[in-house]
Amino acid sequence: MNLRDIEARLQYLIEVDLLNVLPGKKVEDVIVQKIAAAIHSNAIPMSDGMLAAPDVYTLVMHPETSQRWQEPQLLTILLHSITTVAQEAGFRFTIAPTITVATDENISPKDAHIVASHRIESMSETNAAPLEIDNSEDSEKLPENAFLIVEGVKVFPLNLSVVNIGRRLDNQLVIDDPRVSRNHSQLRSIKGRYVLFDLNSTGGTFVNGQRTSQSVLYPGDVISLAGVALIFGQDNPPPRPDLKNTSPLPNSSADRPTAHLKDRSTAKLRKK
Fold first, then answer.
1. 3-state class of 162 per DSSP?
2. What is the pLDDT of residue 191?
3. CA-to-CA distance for 254 and 229, rounded, in angstroms?
4. What's the rounded Cα separation, in Å, for the pair 78 and 87?
């Protein structure tokens, strides 16, 4: 299938499912077009010559628009249509796909951004090596002035397209805390934004109190790595960009609505 065929088939599947399950609901054409383009442009070659479709989809919308997407049935329909059309187009899923919703006030209520990527489940066993994909375009669009705040005062500037985080000394950001896995998580620059991936860690990765395997980050987001908290910022970072080894800081919380389709547990960060 070419891009136009994928888009047309995706539109048809979504409309049929919505008519049967949620009559009266509609998915805007712009979202269908961008999802089809994300499937088509983010597929990567596999060793057997097949193409692997993206398995993590994040819909970034204006807060007002995102309200109607908090209904799990709607996301289930969308994910079912994505899975079906990708397989019909000859793509393969290496892992069960998921879809989430994030908000951005800078996006027009009539528009949406689609971030499609590949989850990394086995990286904890591969020395946290980055997934081998062509991200030359993404490298040119590194988020400007992005950083992580650890312990409330220490700053780790984010100036690489891939940042591995964990206890191992070969991570870019080493966190010396027994709760943190040796290779716990990874930050990757995708289309001008940092996306956080959990690397199948033992204690889990949380963003604003919700456990996640992948999440687009926004300034002010509170990341918890098994209870060790970091704050993502993007502006002019405060001084002391000399952080390497870190230890836990008191947990805090922020409020950014995120809808998770898969059955993921949510947890409140424990207060010390």
1. strand
2. 82
3. 12
4. 14
